Amino acid sequence: GAMSQALAKEIPREEGAGGSRRSSWGLLVTAGVGGTLVALYAVATPFVTPALRKVCLPFVPATAAQIQNVLKMLENRSGSLVDIGSGDGRIVIAAAKKGFQAVGYELNPWLVWYSRYRAWRDGVHQNTKFYISDLWKVSFSHYRNVVVFGVPQMMPQLEKKLEKELECNARIIACRFPFPCWIPDHTTGEGIDTVWAYDLKRSRGCKTKSLETTLETES
Questions:
Q1: What is residue 202's three-state secondary structure?
Q2: What helix, strand, coil percent values describe the chain, rounded to 5?
Q3: Which of 77, 93, 124, 203 is the most buried (most CB within 10 A)?
């Protein structure tokens, strides 16, 4: 109204040269903050860009509780381990510290390079490997332990892929979201920290298949 118009007319006269100076500083600060945000975006974007293009899988770091729950599911286990969509490598590194030969597959090169640096920094680079690769183009047949941080959209297809490729002695550990058809053999944690473990020898009835093979051979 009239009051706001009057104030608008009065303000420039009251500020004078000081107001112009403050406006200039304001522009400089705004430009500086804007430049910083652009720089941060350029650095951060590779870390949050979907890591697996076939299904939108953004990078979400595993929590400390999730890592501990995964390690709990790996107790009394041995052999090779793979983390599908390994992100910044924290699961692979934690497993390597427990004695596993651990491998991570991640499509985002920035995260792979950062994972390699973290493994070197933590002194486990000799027990870890990180590959820049799309999980749908990799065979996991030679791994006994598989860790998956997925999203619901990818789990049905991944379930079929792993069931086809893995040996009967494999254990698959799913974080955040379970597989749609398999019944977990072990579960631990709550909420987003829940972890499900699946033993393929039970999911696929491997004992029965082995017995049938033996009987066929004997006959």
A1: helix
A2: 55, 15, 30
A3: 93
Using the structure block, give the residue that is written with the tokens 């991570």: 104
Q: What is the pLDDT of residues 62-113, one digit of tens each?
A: 889 999 999 999 999 999 999 999 999 999 999 999 999 999 999 999 999 9
The Cα–Cα gap between 17 and 60 comes to: 50
3-state secondary structure of 180: coil
Closest CA to 58 of 68, 69, 47, 71: 47
Q: Is the pTM of this model over 0.70?
A: no
Residue pair 179/159 in contact (Cβ under 8 Å)? The answer is: yes
Q: pLDDT tens digits, residue range 130-155?
A: 999 988 999 999 999 999 988 889 99
Q: List the domains of the chain with CATH numbers.
A: 83-194 (3.40.50.150)
**CA of residue 155 relative to chain centroid, distance:** 14
Inter-residue contact 86 to 62 (CB < 8 Å): no
